[in-house]
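Protein entry
_____________
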Amino acid sequence: MRPLRLRARVATAAAVAIVAAVVLLALAVPALLARQLEDSLDRTLRARAVDVARLAAASPDLLTRPGTLDARLSGGSLLVQVVDRRGRIVARSSALGARVLPPEGPARAALVDRRAAFGDGSLGGDAVRLYAAPLGELGQSEAAGGAVVVAGTTEETEETLAETRRLVLIVALVAAALGAALATVLTRQALLPLTRLSTGAREIANTGDASRRLPAPPAEDEVGELAATLNAMLASLERAREAERRFVGDASHELRTPLTALRGNIGYLARHGQDPEVLRELESDTARLTGLLDDLLALAREDAAAPAREEVLDLADVARAAAAADVAADVDARPAPVLGERDALERAAGNLVRNARRHGPPDGRIAISTGTDGGRARLTVADEGPGLPPAEAAQAFERFWRGSAARGEGSGLGLAIVRAIADRHGGTVAVDGSRFTIELPALKELSSSANTSRSSPPIPPQEGTHETATPPQDP
């Protein structure tokens, strides 16, 4: 059996809830109304009995006059009967006709026990409510020491309760119908953004185009959060696909040359046997190919990766780790706390150090410094070489780009990897001559506390002859 759609389930639940509420109301309202009507009738009976008792005490002769005991009750007549101490009828209302109010129950309690009492009984097949009260024993009246019995029919009460039940039932059905209709309309309106999201997602799945985005609902509610989350997922998927396409393109373009050289050298060995020079070339080509693949994979990972994990670290530690691989590196490591991934940032700093060593003077010094300024954390690497000309600085971080003065073999991906890592950490990387600087958002609280804890005054990060040089561009 096919399950009901969400709109139908919500409408059904609303209708059931309304019906349940009205059913409870239908049980409670008649009960409360019945109690109120019974109390009202009891008060009326007691008040009429009090009036008759006063009349018997003040003007006993009036009791026997026709019409004296007649009184109207809404929807019918009050029935009054006065009896003496032996239970004989002294006077009664004309509405009784030939009927006699029951001598049992309240009447007996008033005559025998001399106490007022309520009770239910029947009169000629009609249900009545009875009230009896004893009369005073003083005086010469025939009713002295007797009792007054007052009755009222309960037919009106029963009819009112029956009408109330019918009305509540009708209201329940109408309320359930209106509630279901209103729930359907409201649910349709509420689910319309979800329907649009579903349609958009289906179209994206059919086309396979991850560059498309789902429509954002106008209201900033849970559906809006869902749309934003799904669009962020699509953006991540688009980055991954773009990284995959770029990796395939880069790999197919850049691997062709070293593979061709490898194939040629292997063919030479196959024809002429072992040759030490050719073997050295094979080792060099293999190392170059390995490094190129490693850089391509690193760049592809950075392109496809999500924003950096929020790990608290200090760029000063990153700088020291990068300097450990170069004995000619001078480190001026001042606290520069950031949020980021240590492995990725250490790779970026290491690429800058290797770039400086490759393109700076062979025996030159490499200066590495860290610090904070205006809420930004910086890591700077500089060598003593001539640096990049301004015309080439803008291209330094492009893939596979090599400067005109570049020396040695390199993949041309080192600085591109540095820029990709900086971008993923919400930062930037820039070059000024021989100085390469990674700039990231600093953790202000940690940075200020670290700086104030230093016993010596800060040294300007750009001092020293080893910070005036210029590394040529990327490996």
About this structure: Residues 222-303 form a domain with the Helix Hairpins fold (CATH 1.10.287).
